[in-house]
Here is the input.
Amino acid sequence: MSRCHGVPVSPGPAVGPVRLLSAPPREPSASIPPLPEPQRARDAQRIPAAAAEVAQDLHERASRAEGPAGGILTASAVMATDPVLLGDAQERVRRCGTAAERAIWEAAAQIADELIALGGPMAERAADVRDIAHRIIAVLRGEPMPGLPTADEPYVLVARDLAPADTAELDPTQVLALVTAEGGPLSHTAILARRLRLPAVVAAPGVLDLPEGTRVHVDGSTGTISTEITAAQEQRAALALRERPSAPSYPGGGVQFVDGTRVLLHANIGSLAEAREALAAGADGVGLLRTEFLFLDREHAPDIAEQTACYREILELFPGRPVVVRTLDAGADKPLPFLSGPAEPNPALGVRGWRTTAAHPEVLTDQLDAIAAAASASSAQVHVIAPMITTADEAAQFTAQCRARGLVSTGIMVETPAAALQAEQLLACCDLASIGTNDLTQYTTAADRQLGALAALVDPWQTAVLRLIQATCAGGAATRIPIGVCGEAAADPLLAPVLIGLGADSLSMTPSALGPVAHALGRLSRAQMRDLAARALSAPDAAQARAVARQALP
Ligand code: PEP
Ligand code: MG
Here is the structure.
């Protein structure tokens, strides 16, 4: 292979030798005969013993680690002793006579599949569960645990996918770039790379064929990995490495452009822990509170009192600041057992988000009652938005239900091309809207956001997506309704200025992106961003739109 391509997720060039992440253990055979009865109890006991060893190793590494690595390793250690994972594996040994290694492999695969079916940030946790299983299997076999390579010179880290435990101790002065065969723009690799400002490319299947030690040029801006390296590329990579600044932080209070105007930067959160993380990262408020965390793994929706208590805890962290609460977005990539109707041939085009309220109106009304109760007891500025709104009539129905409960600021997620193209009509009854670029991209390009094979299409730089963002912002300007952007697009420091140039009023992102995005925006004026947006819009495709922005940014 002299050249292969993937999806660029963190910009910048790098040149260096390939080091492969220690390969995970090979899959334990599924075809060995069942263990004899007397041996099963003993084999089942080996699983928690091996898991305890893995947890202890992770805890020890956590105590030596600095910064956020400690928390990541501790979370992995806790996952290693997860009773659901271990209990399921032991049950497979006792009931079916499956060998211990195979049993933990199958139990982890089942949990990983369930997480993938939930989609969004939950799907990205699948790699973490598999990683824990690989470590337990390595202990069961007496093999070294998988992990980062030891190398005497800086290297390009190549892996099938990266779990947090792989990367928690990653030394950014030793790693030149990250390249994975799998993963997507929402993967842990992408988030980590942006945080550390390492060039990164994901969904590049060919990279696993590269022999260890091969020198490669990685372009995190175009997604190219090449073994033919020019002198100019060597020079640019060396310069970028010298100048790689430490990740900028965000002090909060809005980012000021060079013309003196400002925008607020908000955080996307999906739990109380993430709310605390957002505060610590300087977020000016919450641009998207995903409420699914309250409903997962339930047979019934939580009652109003339980929901109210959870919302209150989060709202109390943001006195006087905006918190945009999104009502339950069930279905498709976030299935919930108690809301699922009969299996649908195309779940992403089916009964999801707002559409589930026709059959289960009480789930929405209870949730709105709980949000209203929490809002009235808090001094946060509470806004409520509904997911997957497609028509003006749906927007009006939602608004009416919110207003009936005294919720004064209501709006919609713009996630379908229909909503974007009709924004002015849909916004007529709203107080705000937020563009969900993850779904908007999926529906614009007709490419399932969960499929790594289509990652190149699930790219918000697709100019058709940029046009729909522009149309939504035009609808916002005509109705004087503020338009935010949430979804991963807002976390891309190169795309964020384009979004402001297209007319977005605020951006909301994963907390770790606040610093890099603020840094990128603070170097430009609105006029420059508008000019950049115009040039990106007229690019023929996503790669060239990105290239235009890269050339134009100082
Ligand atoms: C989106 O679709 O962009 C979004 C923010 O919502 P989610 O990722 O939760 O579907
Ligand atoms: Mg969405």
